Amino acid sequence: MIQFTRNYTDRSNEYGFQFEFHCDKCRNGHMSPFIANKMGLAAGFLKAAGTLFGGSLSRAAYAGDHVKDALRGSAWDDAYAEAVEEGKKHFKHCTRCGQWVCPQACWNESRGLCESCAPDLQEEAAHIQAKVSVEQAWAKARKVDQVESLDMKAHRTAAASACPHCNARVEGGKFCAECGKPLAAAKVHCTQCGTEMKPTARFCGECGTSRGG
Q1: Cβ–Cβ under 8 Å, residues 170 and 162
Q2: Structure confidence at residue 151 (pLDDT)
Q3: What is the pTM of this model?
Q4: What are the DSSP calls for 73-93, one per residue?
Q5: Helix or strand or coil: residue 171?
Q6: Would you tell me the crossing angle of helices 38-53 and 56-87 to the nearest 10 degrees?
Q7: Of the candidates 183, 191, 186, which has an alpha carbon nearest to the alpha carbon of residue 207?
Q8: 84 touches 2 (CB < 8 A)
Q9: What is the rounded CA–CA span in Å between residue 73 and residue 11?
Q10: Which of 19, 24, 69, 17 is nearest to 43 (CA)?
Q11: Mind listing the pLDDT tens digit for each residue in 65-93?
Q12: CA 126 to CA 20: how far, in whole Å?
């Protein structure tokens, strides 16, 4: 049975074979040693020579490609099997879940299982403590008035510190420094019913009389 069938990346090219095996849990990897493809190297050399000299060397290069393609299957299989045997030395096999994991981060040596099946209790305790500390910090923060020094009246005044006529910023005073109009808009009353009207209203909201009478 060949291992690592679901967690490897083929890095092979026409010049040789190389495979990157990955931990099933954290995805860290191990790169197998490069195994040269002799037929690929020979074809590449003939192509380079054929480019310079042409003729029979060029034809030989293409013949080499056909031979290389014919042998690629068995050559790849042999290289892969060799890489698997070498790669297995860098991973641990969990007999409970079947995962192949890296021994540095994902293997519980004392339990003989991967950390998905047998978590490291010291690591779990540290993680739980940190998570609970964050939750308690949120709860504690909610019990304290975080905006005690915030003056909402001051913010309301600042928001209203603009000329009602030209919307220019107002620093103080009774008249706008930009348009010269009074900052306190004069009250307007309906000429028919006497109801106070908004400065921008064109008709009375009570009786419908035009602002101009």
Answers
A1: yes
A2: 79
A3: 0.50
A4: HHHHHHHHHHHHHHHGGGSEE
A5: coil
A6: 150
A7: 191
A8: yes
A9: 15
A10: 69
A11: 444 454 456 888 889 999 999 999 999 99
A12: 32
CA distances for 197 relative to 55, 152, 212, angstroms: 101, 28, 12
What confidence tier does 40 reach under pLDDT thresholds 50, 70, 90?
low
Alpha-carbon distance of 158 to 82, in angstroms, equals 76
pLDDT at residue number 132: 97
Output the average pLDDT for the chain.
79
CA distance 95 to 178: 82
* Residues 171, 158: Cα–Cα separation, whole Å: 10
Which of 13-17, 131-135, 151-155, 158-162 is predicted least confidently? Answer: 158-162
CA neighbor of 42 nearest in space, from 7, 20, 9, 67 = 67
- Scored b (16 or more CB within 10 A) or e, 80-97 reads beebbeebeebbbebeee
Identify the residue whose tokens are 């009389």: 209
C-alpha to C-alpha distance for 131 and 36, rounded to whole angstroms: 50
- Distance CA(148)–CA(93), nearest Å, equals 58
- Asked whether residue 120 carries a pLDDT value surpassing 80, the answer given is yes
